[in-house]
Write a sequence for this structure.
């Protein structure tokens, strides 16, 4: 239960309380989650005839930025949290192991979602190089998990946040600069390794250029003012917004100059990376202003979704795409829906996802031990069934 802040400890006007939650970051993640769920569902179920309409073109123009928003936000949030407990996280203590273990779970869930069959015996019997490539293809959850593990280790090596900035900034830019070269190369090697760099084995995401968004998001987290002064934050966010809009304009201008299709384009193309970096930065600044205008506080009751973004991610994927446990809506409905059907389907998926996430969050806050028992029970039940099932 939240407690009211005593009058004598309330911050002066224009200041944040020490350790105050940054609501604009929660709002940023909440909007990103909305775009993710809605975008995945629409793309999975849309009638192919509708994709030729202007509305769909507008839809794709917006949703091409969703992954970049997520990754940039993950880097910034990581660094803001780390800076507040820098002395704790810079050594291998209980909090560090807890964090790294959590990211390792992200990685395991990512590979679990890639399982081809709900049977260990069937997987072994049909195992070949093609199945291995399918099982080890990389998605956004893999990229985030390993990227944040690497980011934490870099924090430990750097010793100080500002020192880390001078390493992360050129590293993040390098992931963008070399992306057009690396992503078009045909690489030789085992699929589990090449899939992290190239899409030739079916990876939806690769570390190049997507780690660039994580690392540059972390850079913004490093330079975000810790003085508590709203004026300091405003000055930074004004620069972020203006710079972001300039990058977006430069990306669109480059596409127009080269006569490239800006809507449907690979994420490693220069105009796309420049524009996406512009969108994620200016969008972060816009969310900051929404917090100052009171919008974020009014939506605070929905921020449990931001806190449980992994649960939202997994549940909506199971509903939309399915897993080895059950088929998803994409297999049952297929590409048959136009706008009214898509809207109704989204409302249904959003309702189920929100309800499940709220229940998960409520149990975690009220009885964490019970939640851990539930988690362990789910994992054990799945593993037993996976091993026992004949085919």
């Amino acid at each position: 239960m939240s407690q009211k802040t005593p009058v004598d400890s309330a911050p002066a006007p224009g200041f944040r309380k020490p350790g105050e939650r940054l609501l604009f970051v929660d709002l940023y993640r909440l909007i990103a989650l909305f775009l993710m769920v809605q975008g995945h569902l629409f793309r999975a179920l849309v009638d192919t005839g509708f994709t030729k309409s202007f509305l769909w073109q507008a839809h794709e123009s917006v949703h091409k930025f969703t992954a970049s928003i997520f990754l940039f936000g993950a880097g910034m949030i990581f660094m803001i949290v780390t800076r507040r407990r820098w002395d704790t996280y810079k050594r291998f203590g209980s909090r560090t192991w807890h964090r790294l273990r959590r990211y390792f779970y992200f990685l395991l869930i990512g590979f679990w979602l890639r399982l081809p069959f709900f049977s260990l015996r069937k997987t072994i019997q049909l195992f070949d190089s093609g199945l291995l490539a399918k099982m080890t293809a990389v998605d956004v959850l893999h990229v985030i998990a390993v990227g944040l593990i690497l980011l934490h280790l870099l924090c430990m090596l750097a010793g100080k946040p500002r020192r880390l900035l001078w390493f992360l900034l050129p590293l993040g830019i390098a992931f963008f600069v070399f992306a057009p070269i690396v992503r078009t190369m045909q690489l030789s090697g085992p699929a589990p390794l090449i899939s992290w760099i190239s899409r030739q084995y079916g990876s939806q995401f690769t570390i190049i250029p997507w780690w660039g968004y994580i690392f540059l998001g972390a850079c913004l987290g490093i330079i975000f003012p810790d003085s508590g002064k709203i004026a300091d934050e405003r000055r930074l966010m004004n620069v972020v917004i203006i710079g972001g809009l300039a990058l977006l304009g430069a990306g669109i201008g480059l596409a127009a100059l080269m006569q490239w299709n800006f809507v449907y384009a690979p994420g490693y193309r220069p105009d796309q990376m420049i524009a996406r970096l512009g969108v994620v930065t200016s969008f972060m600044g816009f969310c900051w202003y929404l917090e100052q205008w009171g919008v974020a506080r009014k939506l605070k009751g929905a921020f449990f979704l931001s806190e449980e973004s992994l649960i939202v991610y997994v549940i909506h994927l199971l509903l939309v795409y399915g897993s080895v446990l059950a088929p998803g809506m994409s297999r049952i409905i297929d590409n048959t829906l136009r706008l009214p059907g898509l809207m109704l389907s989204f409302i249904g998926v959003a309702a189920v996802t929100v309800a499940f996430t709220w229940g998960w969050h409520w149990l975690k806050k009220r009885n964490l031990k019970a939640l851990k028992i539930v988690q362990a029970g789910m994992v054990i039940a799945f593993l037993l069934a996976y091993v026992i099932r004949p085919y």
